[in-house]
Write a structure and sequence with these properties.
The protein has 2 domains: 22-173, Glutaredoxin; 180-235, Antioxidant, Horf6, Chain A, domain 2. Helix 5 (163-179) packs across helix 7 (228-235). A 5-stranded mixed β-sheet has the order 5-4-3-6-7. Strands 8-10-9 form a 3-stranded antiparallel β-sheet, with helices on one face. It has helices at 53-64, 66-71, 84-97, 119-123, 163-179, 201-210, 228-235; strands spanning 22-26, 29-33, 41-46, 74-80, 112-114, 138-143, 149-155, 192-195, 214-218, 221-225. The protein is of the alpha+beta class. The radius of gyration is 21 Å and the shape is globular.
């Protein structure tokens, strides 16, 4: 007899897909996602459970850096499969009792979604049975102002996220859009960016002649400098 294989109701959204829509209750009231965030970048992220230490460190870090993300027109939305009252009690405990790495009295002001039915978590592929059937993994979706998924990052339950990297992702995506370029490994604002391939050595040489600031190492690898000031001017919220 063949073993029946359980198939998830929803597949994980892919890069370039429209972010799945949902309405939900949160610690900041009801939200209609992603429609009400049109015009802003959004980081939608999940955590396994309230009253857990890795999640606590992450929420304190996100809350402390919320203004930094806001300056690049990026809003934060959290999710776990806990209920609203659990969320409220946990966030109150974090504010009143937890001091970590110089962070204390931290108030989480961005929405934390109640998802006890796992409806939203399943829509976004956050429930991965190989890791847990009852908790969401640490998923991160970066969604652009048009509601399109631009980056997907998954972490296991045991691994806390790197928030410098999440911020870098948002800035790099906006810089790529603004200047029509790509960003190389470990790129930071002010570093060289990658110009789309010219197609041949001859075209690359012609391009170099017309743009002295460009460096072509070969026809497929051309870079140019964009100042940190120019990048930040393009991405910082006016």
């Amino acid at each position: 007899m063949e073993t029946e294989v359980s198939v998830p109701s929803f597949a994980m959204p892919r890069i370039g897909d429209k972010a799945p829509s949902f309405k939900a209750v949160t610690t900041q009231g009801e939200i209609n996602f992603p429609e009400q965030y049109a015009g802003s970048w959004v980081i939608l992220f999940s955590h396994p459970a309230d009253f857990t230490p890795v999640c606590t460190s992450e929420f304190m870090t996100f809350a402390t850096r919320e203004e930094q993300f806001a300056q690049v027109n990026c809003k934060l939305v959290g999710l776990s499969v806990d209920g609203l009252y659990s969320h409220i009690a946990w966030l109150r405990s974090v504010k009143e009792k937890i001091e970590y790495r110089g962070m204390k009295n931290v108030e989480v002001k961005f929405p934390l979604i109640e998802d006890i039915t796992m409806e939203v978590a399943r829509k976004y592929g956050m429930i991965q049975p190989g890791e847990s059937t009852t908790k969401a993994v640490r998923a991160v979706f970066v969604i652009d102002p048009k509601g399109i998924v631009r980056t997907v990052i998954y972490y296991p339950l045991s691994l806390g996220r790197n928030f410098d990297e999440l911020y870098r992702v948002v800035v790099a995506l906006q810089a790529a859009d603004a200047f029509g370029v790509a960003t190389p490994a470990d790129w930071q604002p002010g570093d060289e960016v990658i110009v789309p391939p010219a197609g041949s050595c001859g075209v690359a040489q012609e391009r170099m002649a017309g743009q002295e600031e460009m460096t072509c190492h070969d026809w497929y690898f051309c870079t140019k400098k964009i100042s940190r000031e120019a990048v930040l001017d393009a991405v910082l919220k006016k």
